[in-house]
Amino acid sequence: MLTRINPFPEPNHDHQRCHSAIMQRARQLCKTRGLRLTKQRLQVLDVLANSHKALGAYEIRDILEQQDIHLAPISVYRQLDFLLENNLIHRIASLNAFMVCSHKDNNHGGQFLICEKCGVVAELIDLDINDVITTCAEKTGFNAKQPIVEVPGLCKYCQ
Ligand SMILES: [Zn+2]
Ligand SMILES: [Zn+2]
Ligand SMILES: [Zn+2]
What is the pTM of this model? Predict the structure, then answer.
């Protein structure tokens, strides 16, 4: 069955291309849905799109501070909520952090491989794994919202 892997990016890849693809996708999505990509929404997305790492809300705020952009934590959370609702980012619960989604489709579960050294998170979507989780959950009478798995470890560049 379908497995889609967004592998760990090479440390010196041309990230500008990733960044523009993410920003372009966000603009397109907001246009299609008639949503406003406000300045603050863009600023928060821009920070996340600048790397493949998961960042906490306060880390995002600190990075914005360095750019002379002052957002209260509540505003950062509000922008993150918007980005989450529109599937432009994922929340990594085990890190209490957020990362940009590298897939085009909406609202997918998946497996997140989290490098504990460099902080980069890679996404896998394996429908077999999704099925196993959903089916096993059903057997206990549990209605799984999303078959999300977070796997800590070391990426190949950090081993
Ligand atoms: Zn990149
Ligand atoms: Zn994703
Ligand atoms: Zn790593």
Answer: 0.90
Of 132, 156, 126, 153, the residue nearest 144 (C-alpha): 132
User: What's the CA-to-centroid distance between 151 and ligand 3, angstroms?
Assistant: 13
Domain range list for the chain: 3-7+14-153
Fold of 3-7+14-153: Arc Repressor Mutant, subunit A (1.10.10)
* Residue 62 CA to ligand 2 centre (angstroms): 25
pLDDT tens readout for residues 106-121: 667 789 999 999 999 9
User: Encoding tokens for residue 12?
Assistant: 């010196």
Using a 10 angstrom Cβ sphere, with 0-12 exposed, 13-18 middle and 19 or more buried, the burial of residue 35 is: middle
